[in-house]
Amino acid sequence: QVHLQESGPGLVKPSESLSLTCTVSGGSINNDFWTWIRQPAGKALEWIGRVYPSGNTNYNPSLMSRVTMSIDTSKNQFSLKLDSVTAADTAVYYCARDLRPAMGWFDSWGQGILVTVSS
Amino acid sequence: VMTQSPATLSASPGERATLSCRASQSVSSDLAWYQQKPGQTPRLLIYDASTRAAGVPPRFTGSGSGTEFTLTISSLQSEDFAVYYCQQYNIWPVFGQGTKVEIK
Fold this sequence. Notes:
By secondary structure, chain A is mainly β. Chain A has strands spanning 3-7, 11-12, 18-25, 33-39, 46-51, 57-59, 67-72, 77-82, 91-98, 106-109, 113-117.
């Protein structure tokens, strides 16, 4: 069974960049599609974007100008970078797996990492 | 936009629970349901509107297509009290705001 684990700083200053990495174990990162989702405290889930094994990406239009995702298949890792963060970006960030070549559902999730934007 | 109703559903163990999810435009059958308990990761319950994910008990049933979808829990168990989210994936993934199922 595939296992996902997020890592990165838990505190980021306003206007700086948030950078997170997700490490995939128990399966090959080449076989599926990899997603970042976030959830502010007490609020709903928000899809951030998706990275393919090829390195191609799809982003949420509302975040597209600030998001960059990448993948390192040799390390079984993929990453998220969100620029110019504000307090509104404070959330639990999840990485997840999507099995469909087209957009789909998320059957495996990391445990989530809380990222707080504060000076 | 995905709109879920009600925002909160109060029910007793053993009762039937019906949760609704409405899409602002047709998403065909490209809809999933998740369960999230406090402090936990979302758990996939249903995909393609009506297909149960592996290990999901048969008391969970998804139905609908187009713009109207329903998640039915036939007989609430203590472990079913949680927040439930719908998610469409017809174009890009969009989640609803959630329905909290609480103990009456």
